[in-house]
Amino acid sequence: MPSLAHFQERRxxxxxxxxxxxxxxxxxxxxxxxxxxxxxxxxxxxxxxxxADPEPGSAAFFxxxxxxxxxxxxxRTLESTLWxxxxxxxxxxxxxxxxxxxxxxARLEERIPQLAGDRRVLSxxxxxxxxxxxxxxxxxLPLDPYSPEHIAPAELVDALAELxxxxxxxxxxxxxxxxxxxxxxxFALLHGTRPGVTxxxxxxxxxxxxxxxxxxxGYPVILSVRGEILHNLHHRGILREGDLLLVDTGAEVPxxxxxxxxxxxxxxxxxxxxxxxxxx
Length: 280
What we know:
Radius of gyration: 22 Å
CATH class of the largest domain: Alpha Beta
Mean pLDDT: 94
Order of helices and strands: HEEEHEEHHEHEHHHHEEEEEH
Largest sheet: 5 strands, mixed
Number of domains: 2
Strand content: 15-25%
């Protein structure tokens, strides 16, 4: 994970590109089957660019006029401690993140007008629909993460894109780490590939290798003997003699950086003349 100094410098660079204040959201949990059974949390990439290990439901207000960053976090309650364990308080989080102040997220609608005054507040739509709805209500912007025209105001898109396009040394190191984990995963797959093994078992090898290295798949694992079907996400097949296995996967490390590798190889370890001709 990049250092605190790295994130502080990235936030300073962002503030230097802003003409209006910006309110960024990490996004929250999204339910999978019931309100109590969520998908694994993953913070919005723009928020993750400025903070290490963002808490679900958090937000940050960037003020270019005074150069401050205000972090908004979920309230610490007895109930949250019961379910999630002890969480550092706001003073500890202010020190850990290096921001100027920390408030409870429940006060967001109250605090943002106080911080912004009569200035326009920029924001970005995230894939958590409840969070994007809240951002729309606070900013008055027609935010929609699925629409290129409405994901964010153009000036904010430009500021974020300019920063994220050029990687700093600590970010490059994170990408290399993700690449190393992905390479280890492909070697594990090569050793486990043989006629009779199931695609589901090999998919488990991908997940297991990533997990042992503190990573997750950066996108759904594509692993199939039906490589002619682009982005085949179903792992129902069984490898047989003469099959080619196609794998498209990449590890994502906690900082959000990842790899993306696609390879194909024969189930029995030997290309047929026809397969070799196509492969080469």
